[in-house]
Specification:
Elements: H1 5-11, E1 24-33, E2 36-46, E3 52-56, E4 59-65, E5 74-80, H2 91-99, E6 103-107, H3 125-139, E7 147-157, H4 159-167, H5 177-181, H6 188-195, E8 212-218, H7 227-230, E9 238-243, H8 255-261, E10 267-271, H9 285-290, H10 292-295, H11 303-321
Parallel strand pairs: 1-4, 5-6, 5-7, 7-8, 8-9, 9-10
Antiparallel strand pairs: 1-2, 2-6, 3-4
């Protein structure tokens, strides 16, 4: 049976991200999309206001809701979730970045969220939606004047990992999917394509955003579809993450294919004993009972300890590359 991230978000994301080192503000709103429904957005940022435990989608987090933004010339990181996820899928990473002085904006992708899986294979829509988010944050957002438009990074997991690579200039060749999926029908991306096949005459336009100066891609989907030509324009620094025991997007077709195809070797992290969903936050006891396929890590793997390292290394990467 195939378990998707959608089920994960439909119940509960995970353990509360409440151990913030500094005050973190949070706002939740929607932005217009001229080609579709409004896009849901969550924003985390530095503030001096006292946080309290607040509901953030199906999770709870220590944040100061709608508090004023502290600081100027702040770097921006935009986040793209995985298949069937939402803006709240990486609360711990967003909080860690906000604690470090970043403004973090995450969106819920219309057509591929836990509430709406109507178009999960229209993956070219993802970087277009992500660019709309960046446009909004640097233009219409009430505190856009506190942001440094020359310091923009992007983080994505799974389908989001593909999204940020595409936004940074990459173009996967979807014509490679049939030859990839024929010998690998059980791979999750192949099952999704089987359930939501692309029409032969589909008009595909990839949206790129040159404002993105650094990329973190964790377990990127469809890595095999890029090739050296498809990633030739991705010249930004890239931090690439691979789970050693990824059974959803198995080695070497995804993260490893991206690593080999990038024009400049990325900062690569291979997480020993980790599975695909270990890039999501640790599950609560209730969720672990309901969704063991997503919440159960390999025996001996400490997902909570890993996320401390994961978030630390992401913050360090963006600090270094978005100076």
């Amino acid at each position: 049976m195939r378990y998707t991230i959608a089920y994960f978000f439909a119940v509960l994301i995970a353990v509360t991200a409440g151990q913030a080192d500094a005050a973190v503000g949070f706002r939740h709103f929607s932005i217009d999309d001229p080609q579709g429904r409004p896009i849901e957005v969550g924003v985390w940022y530095p503030t001096t206001m006292t946080p309290k435990l607040e509901a953030v989608e199906t999770d709870r987090q220590m944040v100061a809701r709608d508090a004023p933004v502290e600081g100027t010339g702040l770097p921006l990181v935009v986040i793209s979730h995985g298949h069937g996820g939402s803006y709240a899928g990486h609360l711990d990473t967003a909080t860690a970045l906000a604690n470090a002085g970043f403004v973090v904006a995450a969106l819920t992708h219309n057509g591929d969220s836990w509430r709406d899986q109507s178009r999960p294979t229209a993956i070219w829509e993802r970087p277009r939606q992500l660019k709309l988010l960046t446009d909004y944050m640097l233009g219409a957002w009430s505190d856009h004047g506190r942001l440094d438009a020359n310091r923009v990074g992007a983080f994505g997991f799974s389908a989001g990992g593909l999204t940020v690579l595409a936004a940074a200039g990459g173009e996967p060749d979807l014509r490679t999917l049939p030859s990839h999926c024929k010998p690998h029908p059980a791979f999750e991306d192949c099952q999704i394509m089987e359930e939501h096949p692309l029409l032969p005459d589909t008009d595909i336009v990839w949206t790129h955003d040159p404002r993105i100066k650094a990329v973190v891609s964790a377990a990127p989907a469809l890595g095999f579809a890029f090739g050296t030509n498809g990633l030739a324009a991705v010249l930004q620094p890239v931090q690439l993450w691979r789970a050693e025991d990824d059974q959803v997007l198995p080695h070497p077709y995804y993260a490893e294919a991206v690593r080999l195809a990038l024009p400049t070797p990325p900062e690569t992290h291979v997480v020993a004993d980790a599975g695909h969903y270990d890039f999501l936050k640790p599950c609560s006891a209730d969720l672990a009972t309901r969704m063991p396929a997503i919440c159960t890590s390999k025996p001996g793997f400490d997902r909570a300890a890993f996320h401390e390292r994961f978030d630390h290394d992401i913050v360090a990467f963006f600090k270094r590359t978005l100076q």
